Amino acid sequence: MKQKAPRLSVVVPVFNEADSLAPLLQEISEVFLSLSVDDYEIVLVDDGSTDDTPQRLQSLKENFDSLKVIRFRRNFGKSAAMQKGFEEARGDVVVTLDGDLQDDPHEIPVLLRKLEEGYDLVSGWKTNRQDPFLKKISSKFFNRVTASMTGIPLHDFNCGMKCYRREVVKELRLYGQLHRFIAVLAHQKGFRVSEAKVRHRARKFGKTKFGPGRYVEGFLDLLTVLFLTQYLKRPLHFLGRPGLITGGLGVLICSYLSLLWFMGQRPIGNRPLLFLGILLILSGIQFFCVGLLGELIVHHFHQGSPFLEGGGEYASTGQPVEEKERIG
Fold this sequence. Notes:
Blueprint lengths: L7 E7 L3 H17 L5 E7 L6 H8 L6 E6 L5 H11 L4 E4 L11 H8 L5 E6 L6 H18 L11 E4 H6 L10 H7 L4 E6 L14 H19 L3 H28 L9 H30 L20 E5 L2
Parallel strand pairs: 1-2, 1-4, 2-3, 5-7
Antiparallel strand pairs: 3-8, 4-6, 5-6
Helix pairs in contact: 1-2, 5-8, 9-10
């Protein structure tokens, strides 16, 4: 007999958060008990932890019948962990939160109420962040730039606490660091996205995974998302703009030098400005050629269909090898 799917699923990616596991699972259970919800599951994805996380999970399995554990053999990153959690989740509604106890599980009802207003995805908004000053400032800058470039008026794109309808998580294809832009990817697919203010707590255990490398990664990931959501089906529009700018500047420079030549100011062949103009023209031509090749590829693979189907825009680079252990 086919097992009935739980109404709610909670997906929690964890990496080296051994001390946070017991209180986190206890708080989640208390929240659903207060909501009189008994048909739920907790999908915990251990992203290759190197501390005592696997052992702690083994000791906790007797107390939490609704817990399902997926273990990666090594660290593949948060996006891979969330993608696997989404694939395993069976609930009609899916809630995600980080495993470091900074996301308060008692805020889950806030997200659920907002979801009932007719939205497909509700993202948490940490209005009073309990993080170091540098992390808060960089996060604010990241959120403003992302909102400006994507046109989605959210205040906290990277909040780990989110609530989704099932059809949203089944459409997402996460890899790399795309978990930061889940709201952008969902919005591009036509889902209704909103946010709700949630409480944020200071870290009690473990160490933050935030580092200077996140700045470069965040910028590159933003470019990736912009291309995937706005220019995937029209690459010439993406590459044509820099091609016009560089090629146009090269033409202006060469025209200026040609005018000087006709006016008798010779020679111009040994002037560095001439080489710059030629370089800019060639760069512009290359941009256009690559853009046209991209258009041909898109036309070839999606001929006859104006829209990509089945979430093909975000095809994963491959699923990580994992060891799966079901608890309960």
